[in-house]
Each structure stands twice: as structure tokens, then as C-alpha cells.
Design brief:
Two copies of one chain form a homodimer.
Chain A lengths: L3 E6 L4 H12 L4 E8 L7 E4 L2 E4 L1 E2 L10 E4 L3 H13 L3 E4 L29 E3 L3 H17 L1 E9 L7 H16 L30 H14 L5 E5 L9 E9 L5 H6 L7 E3 L11 H4 L5 E8 L6 E8 L3 H16 L2
Parallel strand pairs in A: 1-2, 1-6, 2-5, 6-7, 7-8, 9-10, 12-13
Antiparallel strand pairs in A: 3-4, 9-11, 11-14, 13-14
Helix pairs in contact in A: 1-8, 3-5, 3-8
């Protein structure tokens, strides 16, 4: 394992802060670490491994001498700066959706397709959509066992998926309601406190949102299953952190519940939390601030042939974003 | 229409209060109204149509001279007192699940199977499960158009589905969190504030909860579709009122989106709130305290043949419980 010169782009955002935490706690092999953000955040000081790092303004010159850049500052910043970083010889792990469907950009979940990370002709590797990562962490072990055919999913997505501003909007609305003040909505088109928003990202022409189509397009690419059928409804819920997904997964082979449970034995990053007899199932709070995704409520589906019904939960700031990006970086550092 | 002597059993509960409100605002043809509840609530005074009514203790003698009793005090009270009321010549509309699968007890949604209300050999009519009513309000017009084959649903259920105590638990937990105090959970097995509980009611042997099986068993009975396939995952969400359901509905006939939209034209109690171009879709707050259920996000399903994807919202204390019961009473009063 070689020590790497790393930069974080968007270091002060919700995911950037978590990337920093993952690098620190996982003891990532660093030669140097550069924190990059907008001009507004430049000059901020951040503690890291007993040192104080100063956030620098992101410029086209930022990537000289940088081996690896972890981008998490939105699609516009990625589209502008990731090619500049890549041209400077830096490998980019990009958390935005900007490059995910580019055939020359691998889309990687290290537990599923680690080899893909090493084939990056554009020097860019894409980090998948949060809801897709968490759902696939549960589905991939079952796919290996039974052969995945169709995914029917409904999501329950936390406000941290919208970054710090989503968290602030829910906090502010809850406080206004408790204090009897009027509620203001800025981040979401309607009130999110004690309410649900059945639209995440913009609409495509077919009536699905782009968030919903990510599960289809990214799921096919990550698992190399071009024929996979996926339908999804994505809903924002008044939860601060951790996404949940209710999934009906149909397989080519007949399913067996005991085999399905065994499929998770020894698999990293995913665990069963599933025992109806003791009312055991995972909630968003159970996975919050943790690295593990959880599967509960697994049962044979009553309506769909060869199908399992399951409830999946994972911290989308960690495994759904920062942790997965750092795991990709670890793969690269390992060779 | 004849004036009826009516009793409300469980008059001080969340649904009982709403039944009273429906009787008042809908100008139900009353000869007399008796409010019945546990000994604890007896003596309470309630305003109704400019009069003051006093809550009486429920006893086996309560039903003398009563034509119609609306029960909403839980399954145990219904099992004990509904047969007593029925034997006294009173017709019972029961909001509990106690009699819903009894072949001699009709299960009625007035917009779907009104005729069934008049065939009640046990003098008991069952009011269906809240999530089932709201989902079927959306599915039945589509069934008439295309022939319903399979329902795949994930619910987002409000705490008022657990009565006043569910509302109090969410309020108390939110206030504790805002004030920085520890959170106590009494009604739900884990924290519901800013969290999700993927279990409603107890588990059956097949890994589904009883709440989830109601959608199957009650859906078949109400629509007279004994072959209907239904799978469902029911989840409690931190919303005060109005249930939401994400549904994939598969039909026997090919679906057409324009025909599907027209299926709701002129249908009472259900309306489209659905326009991606203007980001229009219903949220729980949109249906709260209203009589109408709403359908949004309707689109051709990408993964399932002949299927539509939709998002349904309705106030489960009103159409999901009190309003539906009062509508059944209105049917009976109309003959």
C-alpha cells in the first residue's frame, strides 16, 4: 500500500466532512491531504489526525501533485473541475451523477465490482447514487444466490440526502411548529416536517424522477446486468439521516428463505437484523453513523413468483456516499 | 331517508371524535345520539349541533332503542359488545378488524360495494382497514378500466393510525429532542420521531404483519376479487395524519395512461393531483382533515407488464375510518 496525496473537493459539505472522518478513522495511507471548497469556505480550519488543516479555494491549479481527488461538491463543480484534475494526472472519485453513465467511467461499489475501479481510461471513477448503493448492498448477495431479474422499490429517504441545507430545513420547520410559528419551505417545494415529499430530483419524460431512474441505470451498470428490470418510487421523509428501501426482488431461480439468510453470512458491509419473533428489524436510527447496511423483514413474497420482500436501511452519508468513495480510494491505494 | 337513533361506541377516541364531526358536518338524519365510552370517560361533556351531550359508560344495556351503533373502541370491545348490540336489534358498523373476515359480515367501501351493506345477516357491517380503504379508492376506478391482477404496495402510515396515544408519543418525542432531553418510547417499540418503524400490528407465520395481510384479505373481499394477488410492506412514519401508499398495480388488460387518468373523472372521494410539469403531487398534509383521497405520480411502470405506478394519499382518520363508517350509516339511512 502506497501513501497518497489526496484532495477533498467540497470538504466542508455534509459528505465532505464525512469523507474526512472516514479517512481519519480508517487510517487511510496519506502522504498529504488538501481540503478544497468554494471561496466562501476558504480559510476555515479543520482538525485532522492531531493537525490543523486550512481549507483552500478550489481553482484549476489545485491538483498539482495530487494523486487522488474525492469530489463531492455537486454536478456542476464535477463537470468543470474533474476533467482538469484528471488531465493533471490525478484520479478522481466523483460523488456526483455527472459521469456515472459515461461508458469510460467505472461506477463502483467495492463489495460488488471492485475490479472495475482499476479500469478508468478518463482517470475518473464514479461513486453511485446513495439509494442505489444501499439497495444493491442487500440485493447483490441474493443475486449471487438466485439470479436477480426484477427490482420493485419504494424509498424512504432522509433529508441529509439534500446536504446540510436539507437538515437545516427540517430542523427549522420542526422548531417553528413546536413554537407555533409559521413554517417556511425553501429547500423542498412543500413542508417536509411531519410530511412526505414524493419527488426527489427532476422529472424525466416518462413520469419517473431522475433519482428513480438512477436505481435502474446504475443498478444495471454496477452489477453488469443490462437486462435487469427496475421500478422505483423515491420519497423524502422527515428523518435526518439513513435511507430505507422497501424492496420486492424477483429472481430467475426459485427462492429459499434459509438460503437467502445464509447469503449474507460473512459478507462485509451488510448484515441481517431480522427476527419477527423478537420484533427485530432495522430502523434508520440503527444504521445512523455506522458503516453497515442492514436487511430486515425478509420473507417470501405473496404476489410475485420467485420473489423476496425486504426492508433495507443504510446511512446514506456514509455507505451511500463518503464511505463508499473512501473504499474506492483504498482499492486504488492497495495496488 | 328516516331519522335514526344512533350510538357511538368509543366516542372520545381519535376516530370517535371524527365520527361525531362527520355526523355534524354531513347533516346526518338523527333522531337521537348517544355517546358511549369506558367508565373513565363517562360524564365528559361534548358539544354537538348546539346541544351538550354527556358521555355515558358502555354497558350491555346501552343499546335499547338504538337503531345504529358506530363502534370504534378496539377489537376487544367490538367482540364483546357488538353481538350484544346486534341482538338488541341494532345494526353495528364496526371499525375494528374483529369481524372483517366473517363471511356473514359485509366489508364495505360505499364507493366500491355499497350493495353489500344491505346484506348483513349478523346485524354487523365491518369498516375496512384504513390503508386498504385509501389504496382501493385509487385502485378501484383503474380496476373497472383495466382489470386488477396484482398489487405491490409500500405504505407510509401516520401515527394517528395508533390513536391519540400515537400522536402524543410523536409530539412528546419531538419536544424532548428539541429540548435536548432523553426520548421515551411507550407506544412504539423504537423511537418514531425522525425515524421509521417497519412493523405495524403483530407478525403472522409467513413473515408478513397482520396489517400487511389486511390489504390482501380485505382487498379481495371488498372488490370481490378472490384471485387478486397482493403484497405489502407497512411502515409507520413520523407524520401526524394521513396515510400514503406507493403502489405498483398490474392489470389484465394493457394500460393506457390517458384512459387511466380519465378513470377518475367524476368519481366521488378520489381525485388526481398529478402534473409533473408543475411538480404537482399530493402529500399527507394536502389530504389532512379532508374527505378526498388523492392520486399522484401515476405513470406506466418500467419493470412490470401492464402496470401503473402510483402514489396515493388520504386522511386515514376520515376516509380511512370515521367518514367511511358514517357513509355506511348514510347508506342504511337511505332505505
Amino acid at each position: 500500500m502506497k501513501n497518497m496525496n489526496v484532495a477533498i473537493v467540497g470538504a466542508t459539505g455534509a459528505v465532505g466532512v464525512e469523507i474526512l472522518s472516514c479517512l481519519e478513522t480508517r487510517n487511510f495511507p496519506l502522504a498529504s491531504l488538501k481540503l478544497l471548497a468554494s471561496k466562501r469556505s476558504a480559510g476555515k480550519q479543520v482538525a485532522f489526525r492531531g493537525q490543523t488543516l486550512t481549507v483552500e479555494e478550489l481553482t484549476p491549479e489545485s491538483f498539482a501533485g495530487v494523486d487522488l481527488a474525492l469530489f463531492s461538491a455537486g454536478g456542476d463543480i464535477s463537470r468543470q473541475f474533474a476533467p482538469i484534475a484528471a488531465a493533471a494526472g490525478c484520479v478522481v472519485v466523483d460523488n456526483s451523477s455527472a459521469f456515472r453513465q459515461d461508458p469510460d467511467v467505472p461506477l463502483v461499489v467495492p463489495e460488488i465490482n471492485p475490479e472495475a475501479a482499476f479500469d478508468h481510461p478518463r482517470n475518473i471513477i464514479a461513486n453511485p447514487n446513495c439509494t442505489t448503493i444501499i439497495t444493491l448492498m442487500a440485493l447483490y448477495p441474493l443475486h449471487l444466490q438466485f439470479g436477480l431479474k426484477t427490482v420493485i422499490a419504494s424509498s424512504y429517504q432522509a433529508v441529509s440526502g439534500s446536504g446540510q441545507q436539507g437538515i437545516a430545513e427540517l430542523e427549522g420547520q420542526v422548531r417553528a411548529i413546536v413554537d407555533g410559528h409559521p413554517v417556511e419551505s425553501k429547500v423542498y417545494p412543500k413542508q417536509i416536517a411531519f410530511n412526505l415529499i414524493p419527488q426527489i430530483d427532476n422529472f424525466a419524460d416518462n413520469g419517473y424522477t431522475k433519482e428513480e431512474l438512477k436505481m435502474l441505470n446504475e443498478g444495471r451498470k454496477i452489477m453488469s446486468l443490462p437486462e435487469l428490470n427496475v421500478t422505483c418510487t423515491c420519497v423524502r421523509v422527515p428523518v435526518y439521516r439513513s435511507h430505507s428501501i422497501s424492496v420486492v426482488a424477483q429472481f430467475y431461480k426459485p427462492v429459499d428463505l434459509e438460503l437467502a439468510r445464509k447469503a449474507f453470512d460473512g459478507k462485509p458491509g451488510i448484515a441481517l437484523m431480522d427476527d419477527p419473533a423478537t420484533r427485530t428489524w432495522p430502523t434508520p436510527l440503527d444504521s445512523t453513523n455506522g458503516d453497515t447496511c442492514y436487511v430486515g423483514r425478509m420473507r417470501r413474497d405473496l404476489a410475485v413468483d420467485n420473489a423476496l420482500n425486504l426492508w433495507v436501511v443504510g446511512d446514506q452519508v456514509r455507505k451511500g456516499a463518503a464511505l463508499n468513495a473512501v473504499q474506492i480510494a483504498e482499492l486504488l491505494a492497495s495496488r
